[in-house]
Amino acid sequence: MPAIELTSGVIDYTDTDADAGTGPARETVVLVHGLAFDESVWQSVVDDLRTDFRVVVPVLPLGSHRRPMRPGADLSAHDIAALLAEFLDRLDLRAVTLVQNDSGTAQLLVGDHDNRIGRLVLTSCEALDNYPPGIQGRTLHAANRIPGGLFLLLQSFRSPFLAGMQSSLGGMAKRPIPYELVRRWYGPLLSDPGSAATSPRSCAAPARTPTCAPPSGCGPSTGPPSSPGARRTA
């Protein structure tokens, strides 16, 4: 998997045209995962699109990243958005179709860092007053207010039964999520202190109102197992 060094640290990414050489340029789709996910959440969509589009998926520092960010890196919601904008700049991606599910970070580029965005697609993500959404969001919000609560909540993902409950990940997808994906997504938070220490720290509330994403732009996903964006860290 290729990687690129950005201001906050090194991030991994996948690019279906990484080995395309000097072939004809194709329209680019950038898929953005949400909190405590990685590029694998989009794999079925990448497989469907790769024949007709260049598909790029960055692994953002949202909890399931495998490379710790630099000490002191600001990983608030707006700084994650700025990191995404820097990623588009460094790869010189132009007029991209930017697709976001779960945490809705891509909304924050509109009006500030949108010069490389041709289209913005928001699917099954947080927007406006839908924050934090659902029982999962309320549970996480409550856990953040109790000392050690977030640690105990994360331990539940060690159990396939607990992770699959409707009040947990099982209630966030139309189809059962394979437990090997749960282990992949939450492994860094459970076993890698470096990744856990450089997960988002300022996502309990938006820094300011999103500049787009009306309710009609947040319909149900028909792609891979996705979350409505419940997992936020204080």
UniProtKB/TrEMBL annotation:
Residues 29-190 form the AB hydrolase-1 domain. One of its GO terms (molecular function) is hydrolase activity. Keywords: Hydrolase. It comes from the Bacteria. Residues 203-221 have a biased composition (Low complexity). Residues 195-234 are annotated as: Disordered. It comes from Streptomyces caledonius. InterPro entries: AB_hydrolase_1, AB_hydrolase_fold. This is Alpha/beta fold hydrolase.
